[in-house]
């Protein structure tokens, strides 16, 4: 991928131009765009290249990298997540899409109580980000509150509170806020949570998922009951039949598409920095587990453009992966985070989420059916390649800029200090990485429209279809 002096009209579809005009281009006081798509790409490219200066780059090198980043977007090879496109080079400057905020069992504790986090959520949404929450720390409905001798209203009521607040705060002034609500399967209120979206007019700004534990899955396999655990005391306060609970989850997923399931113990097995906390929740679409106050900036490569003579153009894809990993690492330094706790953790672990889109077009161009064994095998090969090349790029960045600050105690660290599994085994081989996490396959709903390709790793919706674009 070389630098570009591209000028003139970009190769964007009418749908792409419509989306950019309605949601992304800078506007005047009357709401009319005051920049063109090419201006947007330059605005983003120059903002994300600017952090090179802190690592000793010259003016010429910074401008050269900006031209390369521009070329990636102008040719639709790559698109960063929406907040980067919206906010780069603007006063708000918040560039990440994914956040998780903790919810403690207190109305307020000046940091992460229910109403403290409600305020933090509003700030994240206003800046263009989406938020995930675990409500599993909250005491169950009708539990006695000793300080007042009243009774608790339970996680469901506070999720509705967050939902109502989301309704009145648009993300970055351009789109509705999005949330993920998660409750552990062993929380006493789990049955109420599973059915909380049966009424499609309720909790409309949340996706919901059940945090499924290994213990629950064993009980499910055995046809046994499992314990419900009081989150405040840790005591077992009841039992439910695992298969009956699972039937309710499956029925809800069939009826309304919710709840999803989040295999929380499995996710934590690969938590790269367990000494900093455990995964409790994910971002709104569920693809990225995050710690409390964690953040991830995403971006996706358009795979459909990497076919040459009926096969994947591996060399060109390698170049793109390395450039895009570099781009995302720079985003961390260019970002203006909405909370100090988020800023601190982002720079200590430097999590990024490099993903893909246009998978369906790639399969068409290499002549493989989406649902074929050969298609699945190619998918595995492509993602192994993207993952390994992203790690190789991160290692090169670490040579130049240093490993992420929490590296030594992470799963990637040296034998003497690394995080280990339950039997004392290494979780991952030692690698000197710049970023604790590198790949995430996101839905790419809007950026795939800009790139003119299929979203994420989804099949083509239809050979031809009409799209109604929301404002």
Structural class label: alpha/beta
Mean pLDDT: 94
Task: Quickly count the domains.
Answer: 2
- Distinct helical segment count: 15
CATH architectural group of the largest domain: Alpha-Beta Barrel
Terminal residue distance: 34 Å
The low-pLDDT segments are 1-7
Largest sheet: 8 strands, mixed
**CATH domain fold name of the largest domain:** Anaerobic Ribonucleotide-triphosphate Reductase Large Chain
Name the CATH class of the largest domain: Alpha Beta
Describe this structure in words.
- The chain is α/β, with parallel strands linked by helices and 471 residues long.
- The chain folds into two domains: 14-94 and 293-451, Anaerobic Ribonucleotide-triphosphate Reductase Large Chain (Alpha-Beta Barrel); 102-282, Anaerobic Ribonucleotide-triphosphate Reductase Large Chain.
- It contains 15 helices and 18 strands.
- The strands form six sheets. Strands 1, 2, 3, 8, 9, 12, 15 and 18 form an eight-stranded mixed beta sheet that branches. The chain has a two-stranded antiparallel sheet with strand order 4-5. Strands 6-7 form a two-stranded antiparallel sheet.
- Strand 2 (98-100), helix 5 (114-126) and strand 3 (130-134) form a beta-alpha-beta unit.
- The longest helix has 29 residues, at 373-401.
- It starts with 13 loop residues before the first helix and ends in a 20-residue tail after the last helix.
């Amino acid at each position: 991928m070389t630098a570009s002096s591209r000028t003139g009209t970009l190769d964007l579809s009418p749908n792409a131009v419509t989306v950019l005009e309605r949601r992304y281009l800078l506007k005047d006081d009357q709401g009319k765009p005051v920049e063109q798509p090419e201006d947007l790409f330059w605005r983003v490219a120059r903002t994300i290249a600017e952090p090179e200066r802190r690592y000793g780059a010259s003016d010429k090198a910074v401008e050269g990298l900006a031209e390369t980043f521009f070329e990636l977007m102008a040719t639709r090879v790559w698109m960063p997540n929406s907040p980067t496109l919206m906010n780069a080079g603007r006063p708000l400057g918040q560039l990440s899409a994914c956040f998780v905020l903790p919810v403690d069992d207190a109305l307020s504790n000046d940091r992460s109580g229910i109403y403290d986090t409600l305020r933090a959520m509003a700030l994240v949404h206003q800046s263009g980000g989406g938020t995930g929450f675990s409500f599993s720390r909250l005491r169950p409905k009708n539990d006695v509150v000793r300080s007042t001798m009243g009774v608790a209203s339970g996680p469901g009521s506070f999720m509705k509170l967050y939902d109502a607040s989301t309704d009145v705060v648009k993300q970055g002034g351009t789109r509705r806020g999005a949330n993920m609500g998660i409750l552990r399967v062993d929380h006493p209120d789990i049955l109420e949570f599973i059915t909380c979206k049966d009424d499609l007019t309720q909790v409309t700004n949340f996706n919901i998922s059940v945090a499924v534990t290994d213990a629950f899955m064993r009980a499910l396999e055995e046809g046994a009951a499992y314990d419900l655990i009081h989150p405040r005391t840790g005591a077992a306060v009841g039992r439910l039949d695992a298969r009956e609970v699972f039937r309710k989850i499956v029925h809800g997923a069939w009826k309304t598409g919710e709840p999803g399931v989040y295999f929380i113990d499995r996710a934590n097995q690969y938590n790269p920095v367990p000494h900093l906390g455990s995964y409790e929740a994910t971002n709104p679409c569920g693809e990225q587990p995050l710690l409390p106050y964690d953040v991830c900036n995403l971006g996706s490569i358009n795979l459909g453009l990497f076919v040459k003579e009926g096969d994947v153009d591996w060399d060109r894809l390698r170049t793109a992966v390395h450039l895009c990993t570099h781009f995302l690492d720079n985003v961390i330094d260019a970002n203006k985070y909405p909370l100090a706790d988020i800023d601190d953790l982002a720079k200590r672990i430097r999590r990024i989420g490099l993903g893909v889109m246009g998978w369906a077009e790639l399969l068409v161009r290499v002549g493989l059916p989406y649902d074929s064994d050969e298609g699945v095998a190619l998918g595995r090969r492509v993602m192994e390649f993207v993952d390994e090349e992203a790690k190789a790029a991160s290692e090169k960045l670490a040579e130049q800029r240093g490993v992420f600050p929490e590296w030594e105690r992470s799963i990637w660290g040296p034998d003497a200090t690394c995080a280990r599994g339950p039997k004392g085994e290494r979780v991952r081989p030692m690698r000197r990485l710049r970023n604790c996490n590198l790949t995430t396959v996101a839905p790419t709903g809007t950026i795939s429209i800009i790139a003119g390709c299929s979203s994420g790793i989804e099949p083509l919706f239809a050979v031809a279809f009409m799209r109604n674009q929301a404002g």
